[in-house]
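Dear colleagues,

For the upcoming journal club I promised to circulate an example of a predicted protein-ligand complex. I picked one with flavin-adenine dinucleotide because it came up in last month's discussion. The inputs are reproduced below in full, followed by the predicted structure.
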Amino acid sequence: MEGNKGFDVIIIGGSYAGLSAAMALGRSLRKVLIIDSGKPCNRQTPHSHNFLTQDGEKPAKIAEIAKSQVLKYSTVTFYEGLAIEGKKTEKGFIINTQNGDSFTGGKLLFATGIVDQIPDIKGFEECWGISVLHCPYCHGYEVRHKSIGLIANGDLAFEVSRLINNWTKDLVLFTNGQSTLTSEQAEKIKKHNIEIIEKEIAEIEHNQGYITNVVFKDGSKQKLSAIFARIGFKQHSTLPEQLGCTLNEHGFINIDDFQKTTIPGIYAAGDNTTMLRAVSVAVAAGMKAGAMINKELIEEVY
Ligand SMILES: Cc1cc2nc3c(=O)[nH]c(=O)nc-3n(C[C@H](O)[C@H](O)[C@H](O)COP(=O)(O)OP(=O)(O)OC[C@H]3O[C@@H](n4cnc5c(N)ncnc54)[C@H](O)[C@@H]3O)c2cc1C
């Protein structure tokens, strides 16, 4: 790639957070490179909700519009590929990609997102983001008043079942094995007519991602319209940690109020830093990171 030296900022991750930061920086006349491997976490979801002006739009369409607007700024360059290695230099950072390209930049922003860890339940992956859902703010309205399941256990199950109960009174909690709810939590849940089922789940039967039944290991079945599930995740990229950025106890990159990580010159924004997981939040964090990086670049010459 021509002109791969001397970017003011390299942004790794060119989805909502990364593109938003690039817009703020590109409009600030900074020479910006976005490196993106094209795997946003919501790519299987047919419709994205709860983001002003784009409610109900396809996730890829939102990103496509964003990308076309950002790339109108001649200051911004987009590179399709995977960043696999990073090194700190005297003047900034070198980033190497899987394709063998190498780029230098003064500051680094990780907008790399997270990867969901799909449980070993047949059919779960095919339904993820379609009828097996992560967040009621994103998808609760569409399944309101329907028969909904929640896969969760312990304190989280208590918190999330109260939350989902706001959208439907026809709710079943699947602890998928022995319940770890306290007796007080279980009692409160049952008082709201939420059934607790401890049987282990073998399969989610579905029609092209739309759930029909939950099948238990004992062979019994339960008909449902949708499931909410709280599942684990890992950082999408190991580069932040390779460069010394620390993670908090939940697995998110530690940042301060200005999106700065624990390593000077490296910022992070979007899902990789927060459990408040939404397109709007990622876009806001990206804009903030862009402005804060620009501020730091100004302070370096004044
Ligand atoms: C199933 C599902 C449905 C959702 N539905 C909604 C919804 O309806 N409404 C809503 O507001 N939110 C929704 N969300 C949340 C929303 O998708 C995220 O909050 C948002 O995508 C976060 O944006 P991001 O830019 O931080 O990360 P992502 O969108 O995940 O993008 C990260 C980008 O970084 C790239 N990347 C990672 N590592 C590297 C690397 N080493 N080199 C190059 N590129 C790299 C990835 O390929 C990807 O393009 C949903 C999430 C999921 C999982």
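Two points we might discuss: The chain has a mean pLDDT of 97. Helices lie at 16-26, 59-70, 124-127, 136-139, 154-164, 183-191, 239-242, 279-301.

See you all on Thursday,
B. R.
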